[in-house]
Amino acid sequence: MRKLVYYVGVSLDGRIAGPGGEFDFFPQGDERQAAAYSAWMNALHPETIPTAYRAAVGVADAPNRRFDTVVMGLGAYRPALDDGITNPYAHLRQYVVSSTLKPDTDPAVTVVPGDPLALVRDLKGEAGTGLDIWLCGGGRLAGTLLPEIDELLIKTYPVVAGTGVPVVDGAFDPTVFDVAERTAFPNGVTLTRLTRH
């Protein structure tokens, strides 16, 4: 069965974005460190690079390695829309969970106004794809989908945000995950892969 994997960048205090949705405060290190970190991450998950930027980072023709589908909330989709991009991940099947987004925003993007749990359960049950589902964000959607999250890929950045969008924003529901692997980078970022206990 396909897995739902929440792959996201997080501050030390558990924020995936600032109070206005900003995410440009995550430190990347010096130029050399940032380049090495980006190259490693882009090679690991090239499909998580928005289509418009894939050529610039050298992954334009890279096949999808881990994911063939992305699920995101309106907050995660909004930065692309603000830049006039309605189809940010043309190389993936795209689902945006939103009760306010128009369903005809882009023919390549499926707007899901209702139950995201039912959507994810249907996607997980699909046969024949072989690749997993990327939960791109945001925090409220992750809180709703917590019962279906099989794996976490958390990029922890060495910064405290103070306030903003939490990594998971939902009801009190302690859910244990086991650390499967952890990689530390010279720029201070740590990538941790956790699997549901």
Automatic annotation (TrEMBL):
Domain of life from the UniProt record: Bacteria
Pfam families in UniProt: RibD_C
SUPFAM superfamilies, per database record: Dihydrofolate reductase-like
InterPro entries reported for this sequence: DHFR-like_dom_sf, RibDG_C, Riboflavin_Biosynth_HTPR
Location of the Bacterial bifunctional deaminase-reductase C-terminal domain: 3-189
Name of the protein described by the UniProt record: Dihydrofolate reductase family protein
Organism: Streptomyces desertarenae
